[in-house]
Amino acid sequence: AQASATPELTDGFHLVIDALKLNDLDTIFGLVGIPITDLARLAQAEGLRFIGFRHEQHAGNAAAIAGYMTGKPGICMTVSAPGFLNGLTALANATTNCFPMILISGSSEREIVDLQQGDYEEMDQLAIARPHCKAAFRVLHAEDIGVGFARAIRAAVSGRPGGVYLDLPAKLLAQTMDAAKGKASLIKVVDAAPRQLPAPDTVAKALDVLKTAKRPLILLGKGAAYAQADEDIRAFIEKTGVPYLPMSMAKGLLPDTHAQCASAARSYVLAEADVVMLVGARLNWLLSHGKGKTWGSEKGAKRFIQIDISPTEIDSNVPIEAPLIGDIGSCIGEMLKGVDASFPKPSAEWLANIASKKDKNLTSMAQKLAQSPSPMNFHSALGSIREVLKDHQDINLVNEGANTLDFCRAIIEQYQPRKRFDSGTWGVMGIGMGYAIGAAVTSGKPVVAIEGDSAFGFSGMELETICRYDLPVTTIIFNNNGVYRGTDVNPTGGKDVAPTVFVKDARYDKMIEAFGGIGRHVTTPEELAAALREGIASGKPTLINAVIDESAGTESGRLTNLNPQSGKK
Ligand code: ADP
């Protein structure tokens, strides 16, 4: 009788775990240390998955890609100051890419931090995080953990998705409170990403503009892939008959082999289209800001329709004649209602011209892919990967590098939505192994990561993580001995190699063997195809060191205009 008189207690540790569980967030990507080690242990004991990394940036990238794949915030957990800062890079990258994630970091004691008295890993993390994410919150009292998580979840997924920082001071975790009151303080978030219907007059306007087009084009961005409105998007494209161009991560929203896909005539359609409908794509650097030569500037201004959830995205670079603000599912759904048999089809000349451009470019691409130079170049290596992946249309593909990214994006076909994960809005290097782990854990399906040797270096230690969790990830390293290529020399003849050059003939395949994975060293397209088939079929952590001609690459991944050049001769 005496025991039942003592109220049952809970604490910050358990309330954090319960808040995650209550909101169906079942996986944490993180790295343990003070003050979150016990939190990670308890989370696992309570049935959550804790995937432990070797560096927080990659845990954060895994969380971000999980958020993109599922529409639920991916969770990353780190220690204070340096761990937090490592995770912050991923949080900023997620926010830039509009991926929902929550970075949870332990922090030092507020009283000491604020007086700058030199605590262990002292840092004002909340203030530092705020400019790099959508929202940042700190929870000081155990009874506020529920509200803290509810706010973080909503902020991450509603409106334009993005990264949220949640600061949990060490003291909070150990705070106790009455268990029943604790339970009652938690919030199960209802309708975290509510539908946002567009105003009816804006739908009518968008349809009117599209109807007047002679040479219309639909541009699908990763926002369209994220929205998971695949069927309506496909129906809209097929019913209107408008050719479409997918941005890299929107590839596969409709299969790249679709008759209306204009990827193989990209330069032509961008320059020649008269009306362009943007669906979840921003007119940023990746689209030359919607102006200039790429967009056929000499032919006069284009007319734009833009569907986006974020009203302030509109007119960011060029005037948008018909903005449609709302979630893509609702916007496309409403537009679809206005498309019947009488909807004017794009001009036959436009479609024929695109078809002939496509034909020409695909033929020349096929010729390049068919060549088999020794050593391999990007084309012959990617040609053989492409054939293998035709038999694995549901594969998750991770891709980064300079040339490796540019060529792979153009050569490897995607057949299903949300299966391509790449350098994204920042064109960043370092997402490789983090995204691969995130994609493998989230989907439970095989992943192939096609990596430049330089890009791989940023996250290579996570091979151990891949092996530790026995994940079905096959990593292919395009090894050309350096950044862009391996042939640069130090002009002074000094002892140091050129800034772009790595150890020659490195054997990356040996790295994975150190952790019990399968390493393969290949020098021909046939060997590469065989190793890839074997890697995918085995479901085992595999690394293929694919030797590429060290003079094959070009600088800055063919976007040389981004690199400032010295005018001094
Ligand atoms: P890409 O790099 O593929 O061109 P961006 O990341 O530049 O794509 O653009 C994605 C856009 O999609 C962002 O402007 C974002 O606000 C928008 N977006 C994201 N999710 C949705 C959604 N569910 N509904 C509408 N717009 C969305």
Bound molecules: adenosine-5'-diphosphate
Q: Give me the secondary-structure category.
A: alpha/beta
Beta percentage is 15-25%
Number of helices: 23
* Helix fraction by DSSP (H/I, runs of at least 4): 25-40%
Q: Determine the mean pLDDT.
A: 96
Biggest sheet, strands in spatial order?
3-2-4-5-7-6
| Backbone CA Rg | 25 Å
Main sheet specs: 6 strands, parallel
What this model shows, in words?
This protein has a six-stranded parallel sheet with strand order 3-2-4-5-7-6, sandwiched between helices. Strands 15-14-16-17-19-18 form a six-stranded parallel sheet, with helices on both faces. Strands 10-9-11-12-13 form a five-stranded parallel sheet, sandwiched between helices. The termini are far apart. The protein has 569 residues and is of the alpha/beta class. Bound molecules: adenosine-5'-diphosphate (ADP).
Task: List strands and helices in order, with pairings.
Blueprint: H1 2-5, E1 9-11, H2 12-22, E2 27-30, H3 37-45, E3 49-52, H4 56-70, E4 74-78, H5 81-97, E5 101-107, H6 110-114, H7 125-129, E6 135-138, H8 145-157, E7 163-169, H9 170-174, E8 176-178, H10 179-185, H11 200-211, E9 216-220, H12 222-226, H13 230-240, E10 244-246, H14 266-272, E11 275-279, E12 303-308, E13 322-325, H15 328-337, H16 348-370, H17 378-390, E14 396-400, H18 403-411, E15 420-422, H19 432-443, E16 447-452, H20 453-457, H21 463-468, E17 473-479, H22 508-513, E18 518-522, H23 525-538, E19 542-547
Parallel strand pairs: 2-3, 2-4, 4-5, 5-7, 6-7, 9-10, 9-11, 11-12, 12-13, 14-15, 14-16, 16-17, 17-19, 18-19
Antiparallel strand pairs: 1-8
Helix pairs in contact: 2-3, 2-8, 4-5, 4-19, 13-15, 17-18, 17-23
The protein binds adenosine-5'-diphosphate.
Residues 97-98, 160-161, 221-223, 226-227, 247, 249-250, 280-282, 284, 286, 308-310, 313, 327-328, 425 line the site of adenosine-5'-diphosphate.
